[in-house]
Amino acid sequence: MIANLVQLAAEHTEKQNPLLPPGPELLVGTIAFAIVFFFFWKKLLPNINKVLEERRAAIEGGIEEAEAMKTEAQSVLEQYKAQLAEARHEAARLRQEAQEQGAALIAEMRAEGQRQREEIIAAGHAQIEADRKAAASALRQDVGKLATELAGKLVGESLEDHARQSRVIDRFLDELEDKAEAAR
After folding, report:
1. Are 151 and 159 in contact (CB under 8 A)?
2. Do 22 and 13 touch, CB atoms closer than 8 A?
3. Considering only CA atoms, which of 176, 170, 168 is closest in space to residue 151?
4. Which of 52, 96, 163, 165 is the most buried (most CB within 10 A)?
5. What is the dihedral of CA 48, 51, 55, 57, to 10 degrees?
6. Is residue 19 helix, strand or coil?
7. What is the pLDDT of the chain when averaged over all its residues?
8. pLDDT (tens digit, 9 = 90+) per residue, 84-104?
9. What is the enclosing helix (H) or strand (E) of 87?
10. Cα–Cα distance, 99 to 33 (Å, whole number)
11. Could you tell me which of 148, 135, 143 has the C-alpha nearest to residue 176?
């Protein structure tokens, strides 16, 4: 039987178009294709569709997640920019406060320096006045003594009486002061 099929196939091959397969091969090929197609359609195609659907869902989920992350990143960026602007504003305010405090401190130090200068000048004037009074008192005593001696020599009598001597000296010095003030 196999020999008959081979002989029949050989005769059939010579008569048939080389591009078209022989009938039994075509039938066996079609049945095999139908079995493979049925297997793919029932078993493999659902699994392939399931994997493709999972991929599509993962990709869409990834895109949605990327969009969410992009939105979140944008909001974080805006918060960062707002915080940065606030920090710059705060830094500017602190600089302004520091400048104002520095100016106030300088003004305070100048006022303190002026006050100390005035105190030193006042103390100097008080010391000068005290020295002047002490010098005037010492000069008055010395001039009084000299005037008493000179008056005693001129008058020819001793002016030892203290009360009299004091009155003469005071009167003489008052006259000198009046003349000095009139000369000014």
Report:
1. yes
2. yes
3. 168
4. 165
5. 110
6. coil
7. 82
8. 999 999 999 999 999 999 999
9. helix 45-155
10. 92
11. 143
